[in-house]
TrEMBL record:
Residues 126-371 form the Helicase HerA central domain. This is Helicase HerA central domain-containing protein. It comes from Rhodopseudomonas thermotolerans. Gene3D superfamilies: P-loop containing nucleotide triphosphate hydrolases (3.40.50.300). PANTHER family: HELICASE MJ1565-RELATED. InterPro entries: HerA-like, HerA_central, P-loop_NTPase. Pfam families: DUF87.
């Protein structure tokens, strides 16, 4: 907007309250046609004796105007901050110290004032797009404020949420190349977004030993997400610490030639992250079963052994139980590999969850969140980590009866205490109303995209404490890639548009699968047979594509994992992959 237009009188302050004011709009003949278009969501400046107050129009009405008044309409504005003169140049600060008085002149904000408001205050700023009001003004986000106080990206399906996440994370990697990022990729859509800067993990190349799971998590695995049988849980709680003591006893004896001690006296609990072997666990259960004479009691022990053996032999769980009877303390290697220490040019980990058994996903996420926090805790936050949780409402549901309790607890712990230990949280969800409100309240920078659900909008309204909460009335009508940004990471609550993302950084879900069948994709019996081969291969030990049981794959193959994403659709190239097992 031209400077001359911005200086034209737009209105006068007619009432002032704590966080807002009402402005009487003067007849439009004093303004150019483009200026008349100023309406809800536009910024205005109120000139006072000592500063320029920046405000946003939240409502405009011409109803119930008194006879003979000078103005033709009344606008409600929220007071957001002020531009103060400085010795070298003017500077912007949030909040208002010098309130306007009745009759102060109100003007449409100039591009120059907008640039003062949004100019980067330091080198730690990332360019995420442009203002909706003035596309010549770049919208910057303060990386330090956004990360250290957590952030969330909220939006319905199809509004560009995944693209926005890709944009934010790529910009963060540019600004903080040494920051480690761990992304939970629920739908396997981010595999190609970060190029050679990311390690992609899935069930085929992940090694997450079962003994890293604490008691609640291993119970969730053994009972497939259902409540455990109390009698069997009592047995497990007794024998797991003994199995850990036996393993340590064996390794100590082999290495040092020490006299064996009673494993019960070593002092481990069922949650202590030390190795143990399944063969020792089962032998301890079997030993106790052999001492029983009551047949009904023996059945409980037998069922527990069968349950453990069933999960152990399921090829879908090979990432947990590979070498389960061999042992080996690989905790340092696992943490180094998962959380990129050292990064070796790949500071980011993408954990693709779509290939994991549905019954075990919550437990796996719980282990990852817990280990990320505990490593930050015991390392005193020396190596910061950003933990990004896609579809966060699945793991930290508002309803305590939904989901896995330890997962919610682990995410909540990062949200509440993680910043003290260099573990930062990024939440991404399309249903904020289903997300634990306490966890969401810890995110001090919010990027809200279009949300159609009333419950989601009301929860967002309660989570935003800024003076511009009235901006949330725009949420249902936002366009694709349009965002309302609130909180510590942005200079002002702002309506902006995310910038274009290069094609190679677009999440694959953006290329929606057509509802029109393609002849090239194949619809004959050979095609169906190839799909069934992959399908059955997921639960057998045969060497077929996408077989999670194939655990001996060289690390160099990990970059090929994204090629088999479900989100890529059944295109001709993928069909050729279906017909040939990977070697």
């Amino acid at each position: 907007m031209a400077e001359a237009v911005a200086q034209a009188p737009f209105g006068k302050a007619i009432s002032v309250r704590g966080s807002g004011a009402r402005v009487g709009l003067l007849p439009s003949s004093r303004l150019t046609p483009s200026a008349i278009r100023a309406t809800v969501g536009r910024f205005v400046s109120i000139r006072t004796a000592s500063s320029t107050i920046i405000a946003m129009i939240t409502e405009v009405s011409s109803e119930n105007l008194a006879e003979g008044v000078e103005h033709i309409a009344i606008a409600s504005v929220d007071l957001l901050g002020e531009i103060l003169p400085g010795p070298v140049r003017a500077r912007f600060q949030r909040g208002v110290t010098n309130y306007p008085t009745i009759g102060d002149t109100v003007e449409l904000i100039s591009s120059e004032d907008l640039r003062i408001v949004y100019e980067p205050s330091g080198s730690d700023q990332i360019n995420v797009g442009t203002l909706q009001q003035d596309t010549s003004v770049i919208a910057y986000v303060d990386v330090e404020e956004m990360l250290s106080k957590h952030f969330a990206v909220l939006g319905s399906t199809g509004v560009g949420k995944s693209t926005g996440v890709s944009l934010l994370l790529n910009e963060i990697l540019k600004s903080r190349p040494s920051l480690r990022i761990f992304l939970l990729d629920v739908h396997n859509e981010y595999g190609r977004c970060f190029g050679d800067r990311a390690l992609v993990l899935n069930p085929r190349n992940l090694k997450l030993p079962f003994w890293l799971f604490n008691f609640e998590e291993i119970v969730d695995v053994l009972f497939a997400g259902r409540p455990g049988v109390p009698e069997e849980l009592d047995i497990l709680a007794e024998v797991i610490p003994i199995a850990k003591g036996l393993y340590v006893q064996y390794t100590s004896t082999d290495r040092l030639g020490l006299k064996r001690v009673d494993p019960k006296s070593i002092g481990y609990t069922a949650d202590t992250p030390v190795p143990y072997r399944l063969v020792d666990l089962i032998s301890q259960i079997d030993e106790r079963m052999g001492k029983l004479e009551n047949r009904s009691s023996r059945i409980i022990y037998h069922k527990l052994i069968s349950r453990i053996e069933t999960v152990r032999n399921d090829p879908r769980y090979a990432f947990m139980f590979d070498n389960a009877n061999v042992g080996g303390d690989t905790m340092a290697e696992v943490i180094s590999h998962l959380f990129r220490l050292p990064a070796n040019g790949k500071p980011m980990t993408i954990m693709q969850l779509a290939g994991f058994p549905a019954e075990v996903v919550d437990s796996v996420v719980s282990v990852l969140c817990r280990m990320a926090f505990d490593f930050g805790l015991w390392s005193d936050g020396v190596s910061p980590l950003l933990f990004v949780c896609e579809e966060a409402h699945r793991y930290a549901a508002a309803d305590r009866n939904i989901g896995f309790g330890p997962t919610r607890k682990a995410v909540s712990r990062i949200a509440k205490e993680g910043r003290k230990y260099g573990v930062y949280l990024g939440l991404v969800t399309q249903r904020p109303a289903e997300l634990d409100a306490t966890i969401l309240s810890q995110c001090n920078t919010l990027f809200a995209m279009r949300l159609a659900n009333d419950r989601d909008q009301s929860l967002l309204r309660s989570a935003v404490s800024d003076a511009a909460a009235n901006l949330l009335s725009f949420v249902p009508s936002l366009g694709t890639r349009e965002v309302l940004a609130f909180g510590e990471g942005v200079a002002l609550p702002t309506r902006l548009r995310f910038k274009e993302v290069p094609a190679h950084q677009l999440p694959r879900s953006e290329a929606a699968i057509s509802t029109v069948p393609s002849g090239a994709a194949g619809n004959d019996m050979h095609f169906v047979s190839a799909v069934l081969e992959r399908w059955r291969g997921a639960t057998s030990h045969r060497d077929v594509p996408n077989d999670p049981g194939i655990v001996e794959r060289p690390i160099a193959r990990t970059l090929d994992a994204p090629m088999l994403q479900p989100s890529l659709g059944l295109d001709p190239d993928r069909f050729s992959l279906l017909k040939k097992p990977l070697r």
